[in-house]
Amino acid sequence: MPLFEYQCKSCGRRFEKLVIGSAPSVSCPACDSREVEKQFSTFGFGGGRRDSGPVSFGGG
Ligand SMILES: [Zn+2]
């Protein structure tokens, strides 16, 4: 299930959202801001290290 976690950069609220398709328009459910940042869930990625730098999603 394409469920991703986001964090609002405006109010800091974290929420999950079902993402279907690419580059969906996600907005904060609390303040309706679009300044949200995609988070990585702790499950399904094996291990717990998170020392990666900025991740870019092949946008092109
Ligand atoms: Zn917000």
Structural write-up:
The protein has a three-stranded antiparallel beta sheet with strand order 2-1-3, with no helix packed on it. It is an all-beta fold. The termini are far apart. It has strands spanning 3-8, 14-18, 36-39. The chain has a domain at 3-39. The mean pLDDT is 78. Bound molecules: zinc ion. Zinc ion (ZN) binds at residues 8, 10-11, 13, 28, 30-31, 33. The site of zinc ion has 8 residues, from loops.
For the CA atoms, what is the radius of gyration? 12 Å
Helix content: under 10%
- Tell me about the largest β-sheet: 3 strands, antiparallel
Query: Whole-number average pLDDT?
Result: 78
Low-pLDDT ranges: none
Strand order of the largest sheet: 2-1-3
**Proportion of β residues?**
25-35%
Q: How many beta strands in the DSSP annotation?
A: 3
Structural class: mainly beta
Helix count, per DSSP? 0
Shape: globular
List the ions, cofactors and other small molecules found in this model: zinc ion
Give the N-terminus to C-terminus distance in angstroms: 25 Å
Give the helices and strands as they follow along the chain.
EEE
